[in-house]
Q: What sequence folds into this?
């Protein structure tokens, strides 16, 4: 099975404020963005950039799978949520934070926005592991309904996202190629 990289994007930010500023510069009307944690905001922005020219983007499809990877899970929001339940005298659990204490929420946010009904999954690795990413994407194509995989590495204030398809293309989706693109 030959997998090809249709397109990719890498975004890096220095702060949450910079992420929000970038969102506003794109003139996207999606108020739910402001409720998202940083992990979801990063995935959302990368998918907006990557998919913006797809004319069938919002048509319901079961053919697109979304796979995410990182090494810190949802630690940023977990820490914030922990602060809301730390002390019995000042106990104020935040449902708006709790919903983001699972890293796979980022794949769900992208699926909901784009009306993708295919597989979504999120994996925690020790570090960016091109071999594991390529293997997981390859295995996802074993589902005969899957024709496209949106795959991402999203960590802290950085996201690398690629659109991978089975068949023909210019750039093969292989471990070495993925390492080069990620490290560029």
A:
């Amino acid at each position: 099975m030959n997998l090809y990289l249709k397109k990719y994007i890498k975004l890096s930010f220095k702060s949450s404020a910079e992420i929000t500023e970038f969102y506003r510069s794109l003139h996207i009307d999606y108020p739910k963005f402001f409720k998202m944690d940083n992990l979801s905001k990063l995935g959302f922005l990368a998918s907006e950039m990557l998919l913006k020219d797809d004319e069938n983007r919002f048509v319901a499809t079961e053919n697109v799978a979304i796979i995410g990877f990182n090494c810190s899970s949802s630690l940023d929001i977990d820490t914030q949520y922990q602060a809301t339940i730390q002390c019995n005298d000042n106990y104020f659990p935040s449902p708006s934070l709790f919903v983001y204490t699972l890293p796979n929420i980022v794949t769900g946010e992208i699926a909901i926005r784009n009306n993708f009904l295919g597989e979504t999954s999120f994996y925690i690795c020790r570090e960016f592991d091109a071999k594991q990413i390529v293997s997981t994407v390859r295995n996802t194509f074993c589902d005969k309904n899957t024709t496209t995989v949106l795959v991402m590495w999203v960590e802290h204030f950085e996201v690398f996202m690629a659109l991978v398809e089975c068949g023909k293309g210019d750039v093969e989706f292989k471990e070495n190629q993925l390492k080069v693109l990620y490290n560029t």
The first helix runs from residue 16 to 25. The chain has one domain: 3-182. The helical segments are 16-25, 38-51, 75-85, 95-98, 105-114, 130-140, 175-182. The longest strand covers residues 3-12.
